[in-house]
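Holo prediction — NDP.
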Amino acid sequence: MDYELKGKHAIVTGGSRGIGRATVLALAQQGAMISTCYVRDSDDVGTLAEELEQMGSDKLIARCDVTKTGEVDRLVEQAHRRFGPVDLLVNNAGVISHLPLEKLGPEEWQRVLDTNLTGMYNTIRKSLSVFAPTASVVNITSAVANHGMPAASHYVASKAAVMGLTRALCKELGPRGIRVNAIASGLIDTDQMNAVNAEGRARYNQMISVGRIGRPEEVAQAVLFLASGAASYITGATLNVDGGI
Ligand code: NDP
């Protein structure tokens, strides 16, 4: 499907693995120019660069911790210098953490909030001065923001806050022509699922209406739609991409 994103400039945070990587590749497939980041040096970064190279995609892949304002500022400035105004910002970088409240210390609480929520504030705020006239933002949140989940109050709180951030910024940035949406992702087969054993996976498959855990590419397709002209009247929305969990 052609989403008419050819030549558009997209920034995707956390593009080295999982949903972010699938999103980068889907956007590259559409002919978009890609700026993306990761936080740890790994083989994934090299293989992503190779894949994009093979696709003939224009790309900037940089190390940037989204929790650090200075690093985000540098990434956005570099991306803008290289590819011009930003048509799409995909706030995907995030961390999962499983701890019951009595074991959840202030440092871990802060790490998760800083990455999953403040990281988005950092990227959107910095991008304000470089957004194209009809830019859009897609924030990746989670189905658990609606349903809740035990032993993850920090994660769930961060993801619920992303929905609030999305609705607030839709109102604030709409008059400037910028749409802000979110995707509430269900269980997707990425490294975040590594801790789940076969028994746990079977239980999840039973809970999900379509009977299986999702693929990163299925979230990426929803990003393409929200970024495209086909979604021109959609803003402030959270789209469930969760197989009907
Ligand atoms: P992965 O763990 O597979 O990948 C996370 C990505 O985020 C990596 O590229 C990682 O970079 C990057 N990242 C993590 N912390 C930072 C940071 N501080 N600065 C910059 N980049 C960072 O996760 P998923 O693909 O599964 O998740 C992507 C998003 O989707 C997250 O926001 C997650 O909460 C959300 N989500 C995922 C679900 C799932 O079932 N998988 C369900 C619901 C929501 P590096 O490789 O350098 O570590």
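READOUT: The radius of gyration is 17 Å.
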